[in-house]
Amino acid sequence: MRSSLATKDVATPSAARGEPASFLTVFNLPTRWPIGLLLLALLLSIGSVFGLARLHPDARADLLVDPGSGVYKDQSLFADTFGADPVVIMAQPAPGASLITPDHFVGFSHLEGKLHLAAGVKKVYGPGTLLNTLAISTTSVMLDVCGQEGKAAEATARQQAVAAGKSQADQDQAGQQAFQQAVSACAQRYAKAFPSLGIPALNNPTFIQGVLMEPDGQHVRPFWNWALPDPSHAVITVRLNRNASLDQVRHVLGIVQSASTSSDLKELHDLRFTATGSPAVTLSVADAVVNSLKFLIPIALLAALIVALLALGTATLAAVVVAGLGALWTAGIAGWLGLPVTPATLVVLPVVLGLATDYFIQSINRMVDAPGTAGPRVTAVAAGVLPATGLAAVATAAGMMAFVVSGIPLVRQFGLFMAVGVLAAYLANYLVGLPALFLMARRFPAIFAGSRIRAVAAGRVRALGSLPAAAALVLVVAGLAGWAALPGIKIETDPSQLVPAGDPAVTQAELIRREIGLTGEIDLVLQGQDPATTSAVQWLDQASRNATSQSGGDLRTLESLNEFLAGFNQGTLPDPTRTKLILDRIPTYFSGAVYSSQYGLALSIFGLTHVTSVERDHALVTQLNAVSANPPAGFRAYPAGLAVIADRALTDLQQEQITLTLLAIALILVVLLLAYRRPVPALLAILPTVVAAGAVTALLFAVSAVLNQRASPITVLLGGVVIAFATEFGVLWLARYRRERATGVEPNTAARAASGGVGPAIAASALALAAGFAVLALSPVPAVRDFGLWSAFDLLLATAAVLALLPPLSRAWLK
Predict the structure, then answer these.
(1) For residue 782, which of 494, 505, 509 has the smallest C-alpha distance?
(2) 268-305 pLDDT tens trace
(3) What is the pairing mode between strands 86-93 and 234-240?
(4) Strands 555-560, 121-125: parallel, antiparallel or unpaired by DSSP?
(5) Which of 169, 535, 555, 726 is least enclosed by beta carbons within 10 angstroms?
(6) What is the pLDDT of residues 660-684, one digit of tens each?
(7) Strand partners, 237
(8) Distances (CA, A) of 44 to 36, 211, 298, 424, 721
(9) 619: buried, middle or exposed (CB in 10 Å: 19+, 13-18, 0-12)?
(10) Given this model, what pLDDT does residue 18 score?
(11) For residue 3, what pLDDT is reported?
């Protein structure tokens, strides 16, 4: 029995296991070549600094949808044709002042032109460009018609002069005079026909009033409400490219913020501008993520310092260095891999600080127990700790890699970033921690003596593991039953609850909602060979009416192909001939907002009248799917916009949470089975953490039900994350227990020796890891904060489960 156990203990030194010394040569390098490893660590640090410069924040909508899905392709076609979700800019004058003035429209035109030239901008719609386009179009049409009439009159006059036998000079004079008279008569005719327009120009108040305002002069014509909701508010819509960067969004918002003070926009200095829209909210969240890192990482380092001080005493400084390098290498490698900092990946760096501290604590703990002089002691530590923590690191990384199979890029990046962090934390202990221990042990051997705190903790941990096997099984069953609550946990989707309190983007969105009754948009797309056919336009018109009537007031039609055509046909849908004439003659600035003949797309744009949650968006998307279920033959219809993407992401996340958690458990088990080559120790190593995660799942469900609170989107990943991290403690405890059994010690004594020997280090490591998670509670992003709190609690519970359940279960099943 003794020989059988020894050959399967991956954490036992080769001498004790009867294996060739060369088997552990790689684990002896920290004592053989400490300076060489430290130099290698220095090179890795230098490379990481350059990688750190490549790290960038990201919170684009593309991160929420599987690039291979049909939804992604539909949304991409929509965004590439009409522009992605817009930045919405509201302008308003001071109370009592007038907005509808020539100076303001000249200023709007300049501002919109400035925005159009900004990088990342696809289209800009606003009152200045609207009026300027109408002025140019009107002038062009008038000049074209009057020019043709003048040329015809000139030709007639020349023919008459030739017939009368006049000279060439007289012919030219007659033709020129006839041309001027015809053009003048044409212009006078237009002026009489449209007396309210005057000269088509931005700075002509008569033209402004005649084109934009109702005859009463008090109300804006409904057709222009998308740019002028009322005489006191103007709206500029900036549609960005689908792949516009956060810096490009920031530049657009900067132009808006400076519009009231910019020297080249003096006409607008008396107006107040407010900007919102999903790009603005996205930028605000990304900035909150990056800014929080600036104080979360130092606080996490401080937490690691405190835990290390309690657990390690005088070796504390080395622990902090190891932890800091682990975080630096993680960020650097992530930068080189192109992984962004998102609200999901934000959690990684503080956790890596705790994890690197954890691995170093295990080395110090083994150093205290190891006999002999400095060199042999560190050699024994390396041979004993590195394989066990290495197995734990591989198992943890494998668990995190389960998230890489997610269809949601945000979740994939989280899993990969965290796996990189686990390996970086292990490398920091291998390349720096153990070489530092070796060098310190030679000069200051006394610093590795055991402390009174460690002795007291050992006694408490041994007592914790004295449960009878029957009681342990009851706890196992109860914890596993808690997993049944996972599908019932509701996820928070209210934007105001997912961004920092007082977030300016949300505040401005609410201001715009109060002023003009809009907060965003959702779109209905009709796709076919020619969506401007009569049947297609009539269907879009009816579908748009059905959508607004069934939305309970949450939707309001802003623009659509059917309304565009009706607006230029005295309020009724035109026949095919008239439709072609409108599309040919009306500037594409207007038609291009709702129609693309190149891609066969027609659009109906609905304004959202409330700041809705993703749940409410789901209901609206469902309604749009229902009204678009039966398009004309040869066409397909689908909803588009960020609301659709968010709805799909939430649905995918809820569907994946069970799959990803089970896959994480399965991958960890595979690693443990390959290491142990026996199912019982592999199952025992992971069982307590699965039990604890199940218990926390049930508790999270109960808290949500009793307090009517919802879990943040990231929290649905909680179970898999904690199982991956806390399994390390099961591996470490079993390594010590099996080593004791391999020397012939009976099960009860072996369990007590394992709990007393490695238990205090496990408790200290758990505190270091929990501190890394708990620091996230200081994040201004509520989703990150909740994830940190629940993860810290779950991790501590999982540690308690390891120390309480493994001793009785091992005594019963590993005899």
Answers:
(1) 494
(2) 999 999 998 888 888 887 787 778 778 888 888 788 77
(3) antiparallel
(4) unpaired
(5) 169
(6) 889 999 999 999 999 999 999 999 9
(7) 88, 125
(8) 12, 66, 21, 10, 27
(9) middle
(10) 34
(11) 33
pTM over 0.85: no
Alpha carbon 59 to chain centroid, angstroms: 4
CA atoms 125, 131, 134, 140: torsion sign = negative
- 123, two tokens: 């289209």
Mean pLDDT, the chain, integer: 83
Q: Residue 509 corresponds to which tokens in the numbers above?
A: 């969105």
The Cα angle at residue 272 between residues 269 and 276, in degrees rounded to 5:
135
φ, ψ (nearest 5 deg) of residue 647: -65, -45
User: Does the pLDDT of residue 496 top 60, yes or no?
Assistant: no
H helices of 61-165, where?
70-82, 102-116, 127-163
Q: What DSSP assignment string belongs to 159-207?
A: HHHHHTT--HHHHHHHHHHHHHHHHHHHHHHHHHH-TTT-S--TT-HHH
Q: Average of pLDDT values for 154-175? A: 86
Contact 156, 274 (CB under 8 A): no
Burial class (CB in 10 A: 0-12, 13-18, 19+), 513: middle
**Beta carbons within 8 Å of 660's beta carbon, 6+ residues apart:** 402, 403, 405, 406, 411, 717, 720
Residues 300, 301, 306, 308, CA torsion sign: positive
Give the H/E segment covering residue 521.
strand 520-527
Instruction: Taking the CA atoms of 185, 187, 188 and 190 in sequence, report the sign of the dihedral they define.
Output: positive
Burial 593-618 (b: 16+ CB within 10 A, else e): bbbbeeebbbbbbbbbbbbbbbebbb
Residues 539 and 629 sit within 8 Å (Cβ to Cβ): no
Q: Which residues pair with 491 in a beta bridge?
A: 711
Query: Taking the chain, what is the end-to-end CA distance rounded to the nearest angstrom?
Result: 9
Rounded CA gap, 792 and 784, in Å? 12
For residue 397, give the amino acid letter.
A
94 CB neighbour count, 10 Å cutoff: 9
